[in-house]
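User: Is it possible to get a 3D structure for a protein together with its bound compound? The compound here is alpha-D-galactopyranose. I've pasted both below.
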Amino acid sequence: MRRCLLFVVALAFASLPVTAQKLAATPPMGWNSWNWFAGKVTDADIRKAADLIVSSGMRDAGYVYVNIDDTWEGKRDAQGNITTNEKFPDMKALADYVHSKGLKIGIYSSPGPQTCARYEGSFGHEEQDAKTYADWGFDYLKYDLCSYGKNMRDAHPDDIAAQYMMMREAYEKMHQALLKTGRPIVYSFCQYGLDQSWQWAPSVGANLWRTTGDIQANYTSMMRIALSQAGLSKFAGPGHWNDPDMLEVGNGKMNHDENLSHMAMWSMLAAPLIAGNNFTEMNDDVRSILTNKEVIAVNQDKLGKQADRVWAGEETEIWSRPLADGSVAYAIFNLAEGQSAMRGLRLHLKEAGFPSGTAHARDLWAGKDLGVIKDTDVFTIPRHGAVLLKLTK
Ligand code: GLA
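Assistant: Yes, that's possible. Here is the predicted structure of the complex:
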């Protein structure tokens, strides 16, 4: 009986209209407070981030969402309305300030009673919270599973399918609450890829859904996440995107080549480009990697077709994605370890739809035409570095 009920509910979700298409027609771009500020973020940090996203040229490069992550929440008032804590004295004023810069603003919550940092979640107050976010003027909601996992396990200790159905229902509940506000709000799922989020998240309103656990600011974590995206391209497209987590470009000890690989991979994956670095310390190298117009154009390509792996060898990865103008974005990664791991890597053009084994190439990082390249050509790539090409026949 329960199985039958689950099937009926699943069918109902599958046939829901996807209202997401108009929002996030290309992968959302912006900045989020978590990767750098984590629990310390304040109103002043968000205002400063908004100022610097404009003055650094990030906004004009396409980064328009300024997103507050966890730890803004206060308690509920007598009517059950969510309030802010002392770090965020006036959310409406903050949203107005961010909007006044030609930007949009995002907020964060959980379907559980508590967020991951143990602040107040939206459980039992979904409609009320969605209305509050809309009244404050928010344009984006990241909805993080967190403590709702316990609700799921408590309700169905031995039935993972029933737990997952509860998860879908919880995300659908907030989806409906957001729709009811009448305000366009990008809906970002954060449940770490559970139950293969890419299979069902778009049917319950997701514009983007996390496909993995949390990224860390190092090459190993970033590349592990990147490579786990192989095979997911068919689930993404305009309005609905796989989210391999926010960018760590400029954070931790990632060097120039590692940051290039990170940005190249996220662009190839049509991943949301949500920067997570501290703008007050952003150097020119990081800024130029984050704002490279030709690389961002790959990420934002209107066709919205995420890259697939073309070829993998020992410590080499080659990925490609078709672009709207008929060309192909083509990325080669050198994963080799060791300080002197500069390597000459062969192309594999035939595997990427160039049967002649030749193509006209443009180097997107350098912004330079390379003329005709051949399969037998060798690209010399530093340890942990990447080459990103635009190929035409
Ligand atoms: C989870 C999410 C992170 C961040 C934190 C906040 O770990 O995956 O991206 O939002 O919660 O507590």
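The longest strand covers residues 316-322. The chain has two domains: 2-299, 308-392.
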